[in-house]
Amino acid sequence: MNIFLHICCAPCTIYPLRILREKGFQVKGFFFNPNIHPYTEYLRRRETLSEFAGRVNLSVSFSPEYPIKEFLSGMIAAGEERCRFCYRMRLRTAAVAARREGFSKFTTTLLYSRYQKQDWIREEGVKAAGEEGVEFYYEDFRPGWEEGVRNSKNMGLYRQRYCGCILSEAERFKAPGV
Fold first, then answer.
1. What distance in Å separates the CA atoms of residue 11 and residue 3, rounded to the nearest whole number?
2. In angstroms, rounded to a whole number, what is the distance separating the alpha carbons of residues 121 and 110?
3. Which one-letter DSSP state was computed for residue 161?
4. CB 133 within 8 A of CB 105
5. Which of 18, 61, 98, 114 could form a disulfide with 106 if both were Cys (CB 3.0 to 4.6 A apart)?
6. What is the DSSP string of 90-114?
């Protein structure tokens, strides 16, 4: 059983990876996250994932694309549903990559975060899967939140404090006008 795992960051990968492997899945990771801003933050998360993957023997494909302009314009146009747009963009790209690499199933570490909208992730994952002829594997990984946080700290992994998008960061600091 093989599964293609869209990865947002290394800390969010720890628990889902363990669970998927315990269920007998052979996991391949995929990093595509144009939502992460600024670019230095994107590079830091990518670097941390690369380091983590080496430690846990996880093969990861890193998308060469960083379509920040497309992401920003789509996110602004989506208004209150900006997170849905973000999920859609990343999960469609993951579904395309999964099919291209010969996987019949894919999932995402976004399902681990207690801060993300599970319903929207599931809906967009299923929709992308249907468009690409692959299956979206849904599992609520949130029960492992504390375990993943603890393990990422024990491993000394870089832990970010916002999802990555510039509006999320502004909300974190309660910037006026957001």
1. 19
2. 7
3. S
4. no
5. 98
6. HHHHHHHHHHHTT-SEEEEGGGG-T
| pTM (two decimals) | 0.94
Task: Please give the Cα distance from 126 to 56 (Å, whole number).
Answer: 28
Task: List, in sequence order, every residue forming a beta bridge with 135; answer none if it has no partner.
Answer: 105
Query: What angle, 0 to 180 degrees and rounded to 10, lies between the N-to-C axes of helices 82-100 and 118-132?
Result: 40
Per-residue pLDDT for the chain (178 aa), expressed as one digit of tens each?
A: 999 999 999 999 999 999 999 999 999 999 999 999 899 999 999 999 999 999 999 999 999 999 999 999 999 999 999 999 999 999 999 999 999 999 999 999 999 999 999 999 999 999 999 999 999 999 999 999 999 999 999 999 999 876 777 777 667 666 666 5
Q: Is the peptide bond before 67 cis (omega within 30 degrees of 0)?
A: no
- Overall fold of domain 2-172: Rossmann fold (3.40.50)
Secondary structure class of 64 (helix, strand, coil): coil
C-alpha distance from residue 133 to each of 99, 120, 127, 169 (Å): 7, 20, 10, 35
